[in-house]
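hey so i finally got around to running the thing on that chain from the lab meeting. sorry it took forever, my laptop kept dying and i had to restart like 3 times. anyway pasting the input first so we r on the same page abt which one it is
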Amino acid sequence: MSLLTLVLASFLGVGALRISYWSYCLLGNYLTARRMGVPVCLLPFDHTHRLWSIVDTKLLPFFNLLPFATRTSFSRYNWRGWEITDRYRAHHELGGVFAMVSPSRIWLYIGEPDAAAEVLRRGADFPRCSQLTEMLNVFGPNISTVEPSRWKVQRKIMSACFNEPNNEIVWSESLVLATDMLRYWAPKPSVNTVAEDMRTLSLHVLSRAGFGKSFKFQGHDERKASGSTSYKDSLQTILENCILILVLGPKFLAKPWLPRRVGNLQLGQVHQACVAFQQYMTDMYEEGKLAYSGPPSQTTTKTGSPFMTSLVHASQEEAKASGGLTESEIYGNMFVLNFAGHDTITHTLTFAIYFMAANPTVQDWISEELHRVLGSRSSAEWSYKADFPRLRRCLSVLLETLRLYNPVPLAKWTDAKTVSLRVGDQMILIPPKTMVALSYSSLQTDPNYWSDDSLVWRPSRWIRIQNDSGQASANNDANPPSTSPDQQQEEKEEIITPKRGTFLPWSDGIRDCPGRKFSQIEFVATMACLFRDWRVEPAFISKGESRDDARKRVLHQIKTDSAPVLLLQMLHPERSPLVWSRRQ
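ok and heres what got predicted. didnt touch it at all, straight out
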């Protein structure tokens, strides 16, 4: 037998063994899933596999050319982001709960509100999967990765950082940055850097709220490429290369045999940014300890403390009772605060701006509220305590955008035990090591809870109007009504509370997002600056395109060109430039 034949036979043998093992695991998981008594969809491999997630959307179009392809679970479900396209249809076809089975995992999808709320309420039975979150331990253990016993301590300390003085910081800094951003956009014939500029705004708000460092807004065209390891540059480099850092880790990036540059990516610069950011956190940590041991400064007393200082102080106080955070836990939580608070609000603001550009009636509706509440005062005079609670229509834009395009999916698992869960009239015994995915894209668009136009972006659905007898009714008009800008009208409007389990952008239960109000304040302040006196329209990109055609094009792009990268985002917003003009 020749060497070539032997090598070929070896490869075939290994391949046969792999296929046999793959088939064995798939069959085992299938039989386990069937015992739950729910519909089961088979997948040849897990849709979250790292290698597959790189090529899934590139290869599936070729697979879909096959005559039988469109009828398979593989083409419909086996790619990241399938939920955004499918919305509620899978659950309407398969029921409130169904399973997806691959050789490596069982995924249980929950599309029934009461069951979804129950999963979030029972945090001990449905914890986060450490296998999926451990990569967030880049700078240390944090609230997203620690075990339940440490989570309670971390949650208590973290919650103390999200306080009213810090909310004031978020409000005022967002107003300053959004005003400067509008000054940068307004003179341009068109703007195709909305996503990049929103990223800068979000970064600078976090810099001020997190570390007490303010930076002037610089538009995308004004920023200069630099290898600087200043605080701002290091944090920006880290946040722009999060996927690389999360997958490989800072220590791996320091390996001497790695190339310093791969294409446009400078690995050495990413590593230097990690080192510099770690040093800045260490310096801030030491400053926080000194500030805690001394008298409070007059500046801090008046304007509130940044997160790092608050985190150190809260940890020191907690240490007197039950032990505070370790130094590495403080670093880990500061990174997660920046990571979670940066991309989420950046992508949500980008979605919202493009939705607004395609919906001029919503812009008029928002501007009406802004003039009623803010009058002709300059943004420097706007008050967080007096004005923010009254900007309900601005908040409704955030809620409606998150309803359709929630950037962060929700997934739990059963860990090492069997867990029971009631879904409708059925009691299900969920086996150990089962991933439990809350089908947010279905729950948040199901017509049974969100009316027949559930797939339409309509912020006015969040406003309930009280009549003269005190009874409230939801606003179901296709277009937001034009209302007289008087105090009486404002007092009649209130934000609805959706059925529990049908709206989950900040999670729910004991492990809900502590940064909910932070994100709401930043969003509302930004929208107020942009839309009180200005409007936005899509720029024409082809000869003969009408205004209505341009708006439809933008809506189509939002629908077809949005997908998860690390989080759900518009992939190429620069393809639809926008034009800003002052209201007459």
